[in-house]
Design a protein that fits this description.
lyase; binds ligand T3D; 265 residues; three-stranded mixed sheet; Enoyl-CoA_hydra/iso; ClpP/crotonase-like_dom_sf; globular; six-stranded mixed sheet
């Protein structure tokens, strides 16, 4: 992955790629450039076989404040519905790549996660939040509705009633409350966020990567299918998991009474 991004800092080591959104003066609001760079960096991490887990985070005092309002449609007064849909398509590409990459993704959230930044965190597989996190479906505050996959992920994570409340009232949800709601997997003191995120990432990066990719496929496709279709898919995907070297290694390790050494193959 290239490292000369204008609005991202990227770092890969020990099979973990850390992508940091870096426009701290505006709480990492998305301008066109940062969105294009994030699309590129996430696609690169998805392709790179050495990368077995991806962490997405924000620089400065928050995760992200959503679309940059100074580049926003109403600020330049021109956008027709078609242009909005084209613009959103760039976010949709990012969300699909996060979903479809055959390796785990983690959003590490401190401070504010507002608007489309919040929903990009929801599109990651796991979320670890600091106790100072502030999740805000800020859209209705400016007369909009959730985008960036919010209409899909939010009700699935917290239930329809809470999703409607968060979208309509657009109130802040704190890190501890987000954990209680199931919006995040874990909430930790802010000073421990980096370490807590790395601990989960290290476990995943040394785990059975191919099985994780298949787990994503099974779970995400299962969200939209009936039992019969899900069971059919399960049969197909387990048929693939059972042929992986990591599965064979785990069985050997079991009988040799040692921890498995997964190669992600
Ligand atoms: O066509 C399309 O693109 C549709 C897509 C829409 C996607 C969306 O994401 S819509 C939602 C957009 N985001 C927002 O409406 C949130 C706007 N920001 C805020 O409401 C507040 O800043 C926060 C609640 C996020 C944080 O509040 P606070 O008090 O912690 O920080 P602050 O002082 O308001 O912000 C710090 C600076 O960042 C400030 O600049 P300054 O005064 O220090 O020079 C502020 O203007 C700037 N900033 C914050 N958010 C944005 C922003 N600048 C541009 N765009 C932002 N979204």
């Amino acid at each position: 992955m290239r490292s000369d991004f204008q609005h991202l800092v990227t770092q890969t080591s020990e099979h973990i790629s850390i992508i940091t959104m870096n426009r701290p003066a505006v709480l990492n609001a998305f301008n066109e450039r940062m969105l294009a760079e994030l699309n590129e960096a996430v696609a690169d991490a998805a392709q790179d076989e050495d990368v077995r887990c991806v962490i997405l985070k924000g620089a400065g005092r928050g995760f992200g404040s959503g679309q940059d309002l100074s580049e926003f449609s109403s600020a330049n007064g021109s956008k027709e519905p078609l242009e909005v849909s084209k613009h959103l398509g760039k976010y949709h590409q990012l969300i699909r790549t996060l979903q479809e990459m055959a390796k785990p993704t983690i959003a590490s959230v401190h401070g504010v996660a507002a608007g489309i930044s919040c929903n990009i965190a929801l599109a990651c597989d796991l979320r670890i939040a600091a106790d100072n996190a502030r999740f805000i479906q800020a859209f209705a505050r400016i007369g909009l509705m959730p985008d960036g996959g919010g209409g899909y992920f939010l009700p699935r994570l917290v239930g329809i009633g809470k999703a409607l409340e968060m979208a309509m009232l657009a109130d802040e949800v704190s890190g501890p409350e987000a954990e209680r709601l199931g919006l995040v997997n874990k909430c930790v003191p802010a000073a421990e966020l980096e370490e807590a995120t790395l601990q989960v990432a290290q476990r995943l990066a040394h785990g059975p990567t191919r099985a994780y990719g298949l787990i994503k496929q099974l779970m995400y496709q299962g969200l939209d299918s009936d039992l019969a279709s899900s069971l059919k898919l399960e049969g197909e995907l387990q048929g693939r998991a059972i042929t992986t070297e990591d599965h064979r290694e785990a069985i050997r390790a079991f009988f040799e009474k040692r921890a498995p050494k997964y190669q992600g193959k």
